[in-house]
Write a structure and sequence with these properties.
Length: about 650
């Protein structure tokens, strides 16, 4: 590019020169008129396939007419840049509403910027930026725990370590220093007492977090090698392993804190390395995604499985067993339905025998309790009879002594006094005495009568009412037309959420129709399409387990990762499934596309003996959820290196 001399550009005009009249151009200059002017751009160097080549410093630029371009000393901003500089109108905030800590930070975040020496190692720059990030902003009160969260993140990236006990070296305690100071006598010298007091106070102080920085820390190296992956691990698998996922406050605060720090590193240009800078920008997007998805994990756990899913479990019973049976179907019978039914029949008989044994034990226990109650009732009756006999004897003795007392004129009074003094006329039945009911009396009886009540009629206060499909579908023929099919235990990703379909007119049928039942399911329930979660990059200690087929499954299953000739049925690793949920969960799941759900999925398939239209169309396949195990964000990433040694105790000083 040709640089035009500045003395020509800034040459002052003559004080008396005015236009018009237009001066006559020199003879060597040809001025093109406006009508004859044709706009043309610059020549762009390209390669053989038409891609632009980045020019070097020695490249001289020409326009389409072959005239060398001139570099101006200053570039004027275009109209769009000027418009973007207009001051934004700030909305009037309600003074009664207190701003959150991230809103306070965001108001002045653009001015927080520092320069870092690019000659320093990246680890040194990261440590300096973390210290400046901590010092250059107002932090909320300590009771909110935001500073504590920041320390936990610094531990994760290797910028903060635990203190070591000053009285401990190589795992042994220092015998010269006691845990508690001994009392000092008044006869000891003042200097010695002062020394002992200083030592004892130092021991009682709680160890504080020290901040040694090791530039070769593996945690720091992993963060600098790939900030995006490091942030993914921190906000997913590390977050869950530390138990932070169960706190809504932490799910909200940690992603915001990480986003502010990554944006601070980008704004300060702490890393001139292009790979680190581009990875930091992707880490910001991950943090923004975590701000929306991590709080939803708790909402999903409180919502699913809903009553609709439980109603299917009430109809067909639980498909996942926690008994002694194996937790995975034998791969040999994945294509053999007859063998599956044989195993199911054996399992059913074993369960029936076990239930019969339990019923016998319960009956024997009830019979023993009834005998014990009868024995106690007989003993009480015997005691009551003895008490009545003693009362009768006492009355006879009092009656025999009455004639002697009448001679002195004191018989009636003496009789009354004796009767009042004894107060024991023997036990009477509640119906005859009109006594108040005792606390242990059965309901509907008075006094201490041991009238038995029917225990079967008592209502269990701990019983939970199981939901039924009749509350959603009304009278339905689904028990006659459908049965359970494949039972899969896996983690799947939310792909699509479909609202209840519009009902189509159906032909009337005398027998229960499978098509009518499936049409009813599609119009009454919301449908959620789930795709398999990739399992190639999972660690050995991952929370996400490989998908498996449970022994209660019925139907052909394809266990291969790729299609194979001669193998048919549900492809465990490739096929999508459509689950039925209550329509109230649509609003939540529509904003959770991409997140993962780990549960037991049970297929609802047509019964072979049910009446149905045999056509060439694809039969809809619906599933329902049983036992939600976990819910994970869309960016879930396992730490392939595993937790660092001693990492399980990182939160010891941060509670």
């Amino acid at each position: 590019m040709t640089t035009f001399p500045e003395h020509i550009i800034y040459q002052p005009l003559a004080s008396g020169q005015r236009f018009p009249p237009i001066p006559t151009p020199p003879e060597s200059v040809n001025v093109v008129s406006f009508d004859a002017f044709v706009a043309s751009g610059i020549n762009v160097p390209v390669d053989e396939i038409g891609d632009m080549i980045e020019p070097d410093e020695s490249y001289e630029e020409f326009d389409a007419l072959g005239v060398a371009t001139i570099a101006l000393p200053a570039h004027k901003l275009d109209h769009h840049s000027l418009v973007s500089r207009k001051k934004r109108r700030t909305a009037i905030r309600d003074p009664s509403v207190r701003s959150t800590w991230w809103e306070v930070w965001d108001e002045t975040e653009s001015v927080r910027k520092k320069n870092y020496n690019q000659r320093l190692p990246p680890a040194e720059r990261l440590s300096m930026a973390a210290e400046d990030f901590r010092e250059d902003r107002p932090w909320p009160p300590a009771d909110q725990g935001i500073a504590n969260y920041w320390d936990q993140f610094r531990m994760y990236i290797g910028l903060l370590a635990h203190p070591k006990n000053p009285n401990q070296k190589d795992g042994t305690e220092n015998p010269d220093v006691d845990d508690a100071s001994e009392p000092v006598s008044d006869t000891q010298p003042l200097k010695a007492r002062k020394l002992d007091i200083n030592v004892s106070v130092g021991v009682k102080k709680r160890a504080k977090l020290r901040q040694p920085f090791d530039p070769d820390d593996p945690k720091t190296e992993r963060f600098l090698d790939d900030p995006e992956t490091s942030v993914k691990i921190f906000l997913s698998s590390h977050f869950s392993r530390k138990g932070l996922l169960w706190s809504r406050q932490r799910c909200q605060a940690f992603p915001i804190l990480v986003r502010f720090f990554c944006q601070y590193l980008i704004r300060c240009k702490a890393f001139s390395e292009k790979d680190i800078d581009s990875s930091l920008r992707r880490a910001v997007e991950i943090a923004k995604c975590a701000e929306a998805e991590l709080p939803k994990t708790g909402d999903i756990a409180r919502t699913l499985p809903n009553d609709s899913s439980r109603a299917f479990g009430t109809l067909w019973g639980p498909r996942r067993s926690y008994s002694r049976e194996p937790q995975e179907q034998d791969a040999v019978i994945a294509q053999d339905i007859a063998a599956q039914e044989l195993i199911h029949e054996e399992t059913r008989k074993a369960v029936e025998m076990e239930l019969a044994e339990i019923a016998e034990r319960i009956a024997a226990r009830k019979e023993e309790e009834a005998r014990q109650k009868m024995k106690e009732a007989l003993e009480k009756e015997k005691e009551a009879r003895i008490a009545l006999e003693r009362a009768s004897e006492l009355q006879e003795q009092l009656a025999s002594s009455t004639p002697d007392a009448e001679g002195n004129g004191e018989g009636a009074e003496t009789d009354v006094e004796v009767m009042d003094g004894s107060g024991d006329e023997g036990p009477q039945s509640g119906g005859e005495s009109g006594a108040w009911p005792s606390p242990d009396a059965e309901r509907g009886t008075w006094g201490g009568d041991d009238s038995d009540s029917n225990e079967d009629d008592e209502v269990d206060p701990w019983a939970i009412a199981l939901p039924a499909l009749i509350s959603t579908l009304g009278p339905t023929a689904i028990p006659l037309t459908h049965r359970t099919g494949v039972v899969e235990c896996s983690t799947r990703r939310i792909k699509e959420v479909l609202r209840p379909a519009t009902r189509r007119p159906c032909k009337k049928a005398s027998d229960p129709s499978a098509e009518a039942v499936e049409e009813d399911l599609a119009t009454r329930f919301a449908r959620v399409v789930l795709e398999p979660w990739p399992t190639k990059h999972l660690s050995s200690s991952s929370q996400i387990e490989p998908p498996r087929i449970l022994p209660s499954s019925h139907g052909k299953v394809d266990l291969e990762d790729a299609p194979s000739p001669g193998i048919e049925g549900h492809a465990l690793h490739r096929d999508d499934i459509t689950i039925l949920l209550d329509p109230t969960a649509v609003a939540l799941l529509e904003n959770a596309i991409g997140m993962g759900l780990g549960a037991t999925w049970t297929q609802i398939k047509r019964d072979e003996g049910a009446a149905g239209k045999k056509g060439k169309g694809k039969v809809p396949s619906y599933w329902y959820m049983e036992g939600l195990v976990h819910q994970i964000p869309s960016f879930w990433t396992d730490d392939m290196n595993g937790p660092e040694e001693g990492d399980e105790g990182d939160d010891e000083y941060l509670n």
